Amino acid sequence: MPTPATAPVHDLGSLRIEDHHRSGGTWGKRLAIFFGLLVVLGGLSGAVFTLWNQKPVVEVTVVQKSTNNGGREALLNASGYVTPRRRATIAAKITGRVTGVFFDEGTHVSEGQLLATLDDADVRKALNAAKADYDASKAAIADYEVQLKNSKTQLRRAEQLQNAGVQTQEQLDNARTNADSLQAKIALAQSQAASSEARIQEAQQAVDNCTIRAPYTGIVVSKDAQVGEMVSPVSAGGGFTRTGIATIVDMNSNEIEVDVNESFIARVQPGQPVTAILDAYPDWEIPGRVRTIIPSADRQKATVKVRVSFLKLDPRILPDMGIKVTFLGAAHEKKAGTEAAILIPQSAVHDENGKNIVFLVKDDKTERRAVTLGGNRGSDREVMAGVSVGDTVVTKAPANLRDGQTVEIRK
Questions:
Q1: Where are the domains of the chain?
Q2: CATH architecture assigned to 57-64+339-409
């Protein structure tokens, strides 16, 4: 064993790192910071590029030319839908299983026509039981009447014998009591017969309720039940029970329902002439007349509901079709040389340094266009120059929309 005097001495100073050896670590940190900054800048550049090139979603409309409308001025334009005044979902009065369906969508039905039948086995048994009770009551009445006739004969004979002093008073009283008892039994049987007759009517009504008929003439637009399904006038069975059989529309009651901005409702009057154009038939002008203005406003949409009647109905006019309505003013003579104005929605016009501009969409890219405007037509503006019929104009877009930007059109 080495002695303490001869034991090796550890030099801790040899573990120290000299300054010239530390320079490599400093460069490593600098490189790490440099590449980290490059990654951050790359991410920011990518985000800016993505935001800059993101396609804004816009709403558009096609420029159309207003019509002369027989010399009447167009005061207001509005959009709405065709809606029938008579539209009903036909349901059963009782809960039952469907055993027959005798219609399909598009079927023309007349008032009282049979649409469907329900299982009537149980109610028919109740009807037969009520009829049997009625027959039994009538038979009992007939039997009691025969007995009463014989009892009255015996009563007369007893009275004669009593007057002759041959028969006792007790025998006369028994004969009278028997006749009165039979009279009471007949009255009871007649009451039972009347009760049975009422039950027959009730059971017959239950049987009749198993047949569903059309309440008016119209067209079936929805078939809501099939053979084998359960139907009920109220929702039951955890959602597995149907509440309707069919939906019938009276096509002769079709009219237009539009929401008019409350700021322009003063321009609408009952009986006012209108022209309507269905979205499905853009070249077909349909004359109409304001039927009524619903005396209530929608506070959320700030609109008033207006109903317009067609002057002449057509099979092409179907419920829930989209339609555009132009409310017309007083008739006036058209000046020679004047052309029908081009109309665009007011929301499509922007003020840029005192100039009126619109954005057109061509090949999914915007095109800034200066326009010359005319008068107001309700929520639309007349355009005297700058756009042509058939141009696609942006009506709603982000505030930062710019010229030449690729956009996505909202369907």
A1: 57-64+339-409, 74-84+252-331, 87-119+210-249, 121-204
A2: Beta Barrel (2.40)
Q: How far apart are CA 355 and CA 240, in angstroms?
A: 62
Q: Residue with structure tokens 């005396």? A: 295
Query: DSSP 3-state assignment of 34?
Result: helix
Give residue 245's Cα distance to chain centre: 17
What pLDDT was estimated at residue 275?
Answer: 92
Spatial strand order of the sheet with 230-231 comes to 211-213, 114-118, 96-101, 230-231
Residue with tokens 């104009």: 393
Which fold, 87-119+210-249? OB fold (Dihydrolipoamide Acetyltransferase, E2P) (2.40.50)
Fold of 74-84+252-331: Elongation Factor Tu (Ef-tu); domain 3 (2.40.30)
What is the pTM (predicted TM-score) of this model? Answer: 0.56
Tell me how crowded residue 405 is: count the other CB atoms within 10 A of its CB.
21
**Mean pLDDT for the stretch of residues 139-150:** 87
294 touches 307 (CB < 8 A): yes
Instruction: Locate 251 and state its tokens.
Output: 């096509």
Helix axes 121-163, 169-208, angle to 10 degrees: 160
Tokens of 298: 């929608």
Computed over every residue of the chain, the mean pLDDT equals: 81
- Residue holding tokens 């099979």? 315
Q: What is the pLDDT of residues 29-75, one digit of tens each?
A: 666 677 677 777 766 765 555 555 567 777 888 877 665 555 566 77
Q: Is there a contact between 273 and 73 (Cβ–Cβ < 8 Å)?
A: no
Q: Are strands 342-345 and 285-298 parallel, antiparallel or unpaired?
A: unpaired
What helix, strand, coil percent values describe the chain, rounded to 5? 35, 35, 30
Query: Distance between CA 232 and CA 96 in Å, rounded?
Result: 7
Instruction: Examine the pLDDT at 77 and tell me if it is beyond 80.
Output: yes
Q: Answer yes or no: same fold for 74-84+252-331 and 87-119+210-249.
A: no
